[in-house]
Amino acid sequence: MTINIKAEKRIKLGKLKAMRTEGFLPAVYYGHKKESTPIKVNKIDFLKAWKNAGESTVIKLITPEGDLEALIHDVDLDPLTSEPRHADFYIFEKGHKIEIEIPLEFVGVSPAVKDLGGSLIKILRELKVEAAPSNLPKYIEVDISSIIEIDGQILAKDLILPEKVELAENPEEVVVTVAPPKEEETEEAPVADLSQIEVEKKGKKEEEKGSGSETPTESPK
């Protein structure tokens, strides 16, 4: 399924707040034999495309100059709302492979975690691969059920990649591992100082005895 996004050139730069208020997202496209060109896209259309395609699925930018095949290369998010504020589209050269990082999706249950109490540690969240844009997967699965022992690992070279997708990551890079279970530290109960307690009790009794011998006097009228 091809995902289309209609793009309009931004003639007047600036006034981004007004543009966003009108429902547009400021963006730019660049790439092979393409100068950096400021554009604006419908924000709702972009959010739908970003959700369905991510950053590794080909998107068709429909512009007044013609259709362009691109990837969502970068998205700037508002630090408070996490809403997109700006997007970059990378125009690639047809018939050529590109190098890109694909998100990893961890599936399965590790016996080293379930049965031995180990802690799963994900070292990589994305994997660098090389492929033609049309062959890029949305994500790559990592089956952690193969980790059956503490300190077991899955390396980049162990992952099963889709057809026509080549590994561009260091093959020996650790993707995920299982660390030994954390030892629970038991705090020792503080030992009571009996001599100090006796001194405090004795002092209290003498204080009570002394206060009991005194009687309030009434001032003469």
What does it look like?
There is one protein chain. With 221 residues, the chain is of the alpha+beta class. The protein has two domains: 3-93, Ribosomal Protein L25, Chain P, CATH 2.40.240; 99-179, Ribosomal protein L25, C-terminal domain (RNA Polymerase Alpha Subunit, Chain A, domain 2). The chain has helices spanning 16-21, 43-53, 111-114, 194-213; strands at residues 3-9, 24-31, 34-42, 59-63, 66-77, 84-91, 98-107, 119-122, 126-131, 140-143, 153-155, 166-167, 174-179. Strands 1-3-2-6-5-4 form a six-stranded mixed beta barrel. Strands 10-7-9-12 form a four-stranded mixed beta sheet, with no helix packed on it. It has a three-stranded antiparallel beta sheet with strand order 8-13-11, with no helix packed on it. The radius of gyration is 33 Å and the shape is elongated. Mean pLDDT is 84; it is low at 211-221.
Give short descriptive properties of this protein.
single chain; 221 residues; alpha+beta; RNA Polymerase Alpha Subunit, Chain A, domain 2; 2 domains; 6-stranded mixed beta barrel; 4-stranded mixed beta sheet; elongated; disordered C terminus
